[in-house]
Amino acid sequence: MAEQIAQTARAASKVLQAVSGADRDAALIAIHDALKHQKDAILAANQKDLDAAKPQVEAGTMSGAMLKRLDLTRSWDSMLQGILDVMNLEDPVGKVSLSTKLDEGLELHRLACPVGVLLVIFEARPEVIANITALALKSGNACILKGGKESSHSFAEIARVVSGALARTDNIPRGAVQLVQTRDEISALLKQDRDIDMVIPRGSNALVRNIKENTKIPVLGHADGLCSVYIHEDADVDMACRVVVDAKTHYPAACNAAETLVVNEKILTTTFTKVANALLDAKVSLRCDAASLAALNEVPALLAEYASQITASTPEDYDTEFLELIIAVKTVPSLPAAIHHINTHNSGHTDSILTSSAPTAQQFMSAIDAAGVYWNASTRFADGFRYGFGAEVGISTNKVHARGPVGLEGLMIYKYQVRGMGHVAGDFDVGGKSVRLFNMVASQTSEHTFSAPWQTVTLAWFLRYPNPFSTHVLSCDTLSSTLNSNGTLYTERLIRKRAGLLPAWTPATIRNRVKASWVLEECMVDRDQKLMWTRSRNIDHTRFCHVVQSQEWGASARGTEGTVCRTNAKFVSNFANRWGGVSEKIEEFISKGFAKNIKKSREGLNYVLDAMKEGRMAIGNAKLAAA
Prior knowledge:
With 627 residues, the chain is an alpha/beta fold. It contains 18 helices and 26 strands. It has three domains: 2-213, Aldehyde Dehydrogenase, Chain A, domain 1; 227-392, Aldehyde Dehydrogenase, Chain A, domain 2 (3-Layer(aba) Sandwich), CATH 3.40.309; 442-624, Alpha-D-Glucose-1,6-Bisphosphate, Chain A, domain 4 (2-Layer Sandwich), CATH 3.30.530. The protein is 35% helix and 26% strand. Strand 22 and strand 23 form a beta hairpin. Keywords: Amino-acid biosynthesis, NADP, Oxidoreductase, Proline biosynthesis. Belongs to the gamma-glutamyl phosphate reductase family.
């Protein structure tokens, strides 16, 4: 039976690779609509699983964390939205990541392709069925899903709905998604290494370890969370309280919840006691080492109110994934000591540092061995939804293939295509022709110095629309703007731009559709370092051509007044999967147009700078003047 399931999936995977992106998206819509329509029946089945699990929790045979993961009501909306988010992602199949001209008429291309057949085994978390199915179909992979006994009613009902939706969908091969409900099949499926390409376990440490020990098939996943947050001596107190409490309490049963709080000894009687108070207020129990326990003993009010939540730690606590409102506290004398402790005890999942120093953060982020390393952010961001992946198949701590939250890209590998005109390797032997490498993806770099000081140029950059040189800009809206406690400003803006004329050889269907484009513009301003980083990219028509522009704005060399802007731009077209040289022509055409546009953008910024200098610009009633 297991062999037949695997072989059916293998046959389906070969067909699925050739199914169009539109047909795969149609299947996702069908699944989404069917699940939405059958919500009441699915949640009723889920309630049966919850009712059966509660006595097990009370008896101590099931953890409270697993019970929380089993509850589908809390994840229902995000499950449905995740399917739509995945559908709206760019089709990864056939995406070109490298194009090199080896010789005249001889080209090398690297294209993304599906892994093949995925076996997903999970405990609780019934929403995994929808998440994995969406990601597998979008990426062109066949998948076999096996749920745990604790979610058997939920699994059976969702399986019925998903299978029915796919049966009504054209062009998706039979066996592309198989939902296995027989417990005996797991061990047999783990032996099908000829037809199954990857196993993805979602569940307890015991489940993951058991799978890794009993299969030759590559396993993508992690056995433990064990995330840490380190508070450096210069961390902002209010920010530390917010981030640590969120990292521990936002969803304690999640693998990205913080399990260890590492504290610099210089702040034991200041920042730490306030963070500890915030955690205790949130009903978190602290397992403290001797130094942190002594610091709390100096605060009688804390002991009087929270004595039952404060205990001494054991060595085992620093290797324990609590998955509940418990956190271990470790005191360290320095940053290197914090790095050493975390690297010794972490699982390679996600670790965070809280500090106001960029060099300190960089040292930490470079030295910590983990899939995710954060600066002034909660470990709870280690999630495919929050990374913008639409959904995730899981979080991997592996060092081969995918790492961290695994979305579509983690389900892709690549193949190399070589296109020649009768080329033979013998012509390139010693003494013969040499391979000439030429990167076929167009790019540009440039540098320009504005005469105005950095603080004036950065302000003018935010105010540059509209100006006489930007008549192609139709709208500019701020999506977000955040100023952190260190004075660093982060902004996102959405800009609508009118497209320029396309060459006559562009297909009419493309010319008629590409009339305007949405551009996402991201910016970070560090006023202390006098640096601004900007990045803009089009978020539609990316198959035709994806243009990514990165810029760094810094003060001129010491002793001179001015601002240096360094620009790097890349132009990548995946039109027709780069067949027949059309993509190269598109990149060349767009690159030439960009060179003209970058000149216009500089003229526009200079126009704004002159207007500021002459007092012709204002924000509200306040006139602006160049410094």
